[in-house]
Structure formats: structure tokens, C-alpha cells
Amino acid sequence: MATRARQGLIVAGVDVGGTRKGFHAVALADGALVDVFASPDPAAVAIWCDAVGARHVGVDAPCAWSRDGRMRPAERALQAAGIPCFASPTRAAAIAHPKGWYDWMLNGERLFGMLTRRYALYAGGTPSPAGQCFETFPQAIACALAGARVPAREKRTRRRALLEDAGIDTRPLANIDMVDAALCALAARCFAHARFSAYGDAGDACIVVPAPAAQPGR
After folding, report:
1. Which of 54, 136, 183, 203 is least surrounded by Cβ atoms within 10 Å, i.e. has the fewest?
2. Domains (range + CATH), the chain
3. pTM over cut 0.85
4. Residue 8 contacts residue 53 (beta carbons within 8 Å)
């Protein structure tokens, strides 16, 4: 496992699944992959993030619930930018769903609850050097890195290729969950260097993705 003694800027990304899948996490140091971690326990993931010395943590899960049953402002902003995303329900609707479709969002809520004991939740403005956690979205990250709409059906190949284009060794990433965690970590690195876009209302729940790549010829 990586430790605080490792030099350089360390960031982490976490892919959130339901109760059975749990959490997958990746740490980057100065843009290079240095550690991976998986656990069904959100407390263990938060402890790992702190143990590797991650300054910022990007999480693939909503950091807030809908207040009125409609899309949150951040989700509407992503849709307006041409990136389809999940519409978060109210917390009551998530709990009441008979098939447990929103269990992964409830798991995300648990993780943010653990992370915010150490990392302030980003709600707009300049990133804090003290460290923050934030909501992000792998499909939006992939589109930003590619500078174009990336079909979600190609995610297993395209997302891995985008990580490799960014100089990240993808061989330790055994599955798509680890790939998505690495994308979240890459978003955290962009966040640390102020190369990001924040969707949503300032002071409210934001979705953070890397700044869009320049289009060819521009």
C-alpha cells in the first residue's frame, strides 16, 4: 500500500456500486497509478484515502439528493452540455424503491458521510489546498478528455484508452469498476490543478469533470 511518505501530489478516485459490488478505488501520485483498493465498507475506503495521503477524492456517486423529485441543477447542466446522466431521486424515493435500484446511491451517501469527516465537500469556487471530495461522473470525464461525445457502449475500450493517453498504466485495473475509479482519480488531479469544469449552482452540490480537451484544429 502507498503511504504518506510517497512524494508528490496524490489524489484518489472511487467507483461506487451497490451492496454486493461495493467500492473500487484508485490512487494516483503525480499522474502515475500507485495503489488500488476494493471493499464493501465505506469506512474502509475513507480510511484508505487518508492512508495513501490523497489530497482530493473524486467519487462516482451523487453527493446530494433531489429536493423535489426532479433533476438536480448539476444534472440539468450536464444534460444541457450534451452528456446524459442519471437523475437522482429524493432520498425517500430511493429508500422506498422495491427493487433496490438506488442502493448504489445510498452507498454513495454512506461514503460521502465518511469522507467528509476528513475532506470538505466541494460546492464551487477555488479548490481548497487542505483537500476536498467531490461528485464526478466517468462518462462526463471520458467526453471531456476526448473533446467529443464518447458512446457509452464503447466504455470498456475507450475509457481505458483515454487513461493510457493520459500516461496511466492500466494493467493493474482488472475491471471496468477500477477503470472508472481511475477516471475519477484523473478528474481529481485536474481538480487539484484547477483544470476542471464544475456543473451546478455555486454553494450547492456540484459535479466536477476535467476541463474539455481542445478540438482538433482549434
Report:
1. 203
2. 10-199 (3.30.420.140)
3. yes
4. no
